[in-house]
Amino acid sequence: PVYASQYTAVAVTHNFVGSPHIDKQNVGPFYGFAVGDFEDGTGNIMAECSARVVAAINTKNRMAKVDGRFPHWVGPYDSKTDR
């Protein structure tokens, strides 16, 4: 795939909690993928589509493409589960 030949960094996290932020160094989208024993619908990547619209992007056992140049964060999840 194209994304596999055009990356400059890889981040591996465990039980990551992030507040809303913008990745100023990004020149394009990033790809997120989550695995673990956590409920479906939790721990999504949340991304602002506009001032009043936020998308919840499910990355559990699937790859998702997100433009980190817009505000985004990790949605709530049960911190007692492994993620």
Query: Biggest β-sheet, characterized?
Result: 3 strands, antiparallel
Query: What is the global morphology?
Result: globular
Query: What's the rounded overall pLDDT mean?
Result: 83
Number of helices: 1
Helix content: under 10%
Give an overview in words.
A hairpin with a 2-residue loop joins strand 2 and strand 3 (53-57). This protein is globular. Helices cover 5% and strands 27% of the residues. It has one helix at residues 2-5; strands at residues 30-33, 45-50, 53-57, 63-66, 72-74. The N and C termini lie far apart (26 Å). It is built from one helix and five strands. Strands 3-2-5 form a three-stranded antiparallel β-sheet, with no helix packed on it. Strands 1-4 form a two-stranded antiparallel ribbon. The protein is mostly beta strands and 83 residues long.
SSE layout and pairing:
Layout: H1 2-5, E1 30-33, E2 45-50, E3 53-57, E4 63-66, E5 72-74
Main features:
83 residues, mainly beta, 3-stranded antiparallel sheet, two-stranded antiparallel ribbon, 27% strand, globular
What's a quick, concise take on this entry?
5% of the residues lie in helices and 27% in strands. It has one helix spanning 2-5; strands spanning 30-33, 45-50, 53-57, 63-66, 72-74.
